[in-house]
Amino acid sequence: MKTETVKRRQQIEQRRLRGVIRQVMEQLETGSSEVTVLSAMDAQYAEAHRAQVALEDALPDG
Q: pLDDT by residue (tens digit) across 4-59?
């Protein structure tokens, strides 16, 4: 096989791999963002639940 052909195939493969790496990085960033949002929502839920329990405890029975 000619040297030019080999080099050309290597360039094509490198471009393809760069694209795959870029996709994986974007997915990781998106995944991290989703985890951050879910963690914040869990914290807000826990805080709201504590506030609700405190209000219920403060209300008179009956």
A: 888 999 999 999 999 999 998 888 888 888 888 889 999 999 999 999 998 888 88
Q: CA–CA separation, 47 vs 62, rounded Å?
A: 26
What does the angle CA 34 – CA 37 – CA 40 come to, to the nearest 5 degrees? 150
Angle 22-27-30 from CA coordinates, rounded to 5°: 125
State the pTM of this model.
0.53
The Cα 10–Cα 23 span in angstroms is: 20
| 2: enclosing H helix or E strand | none
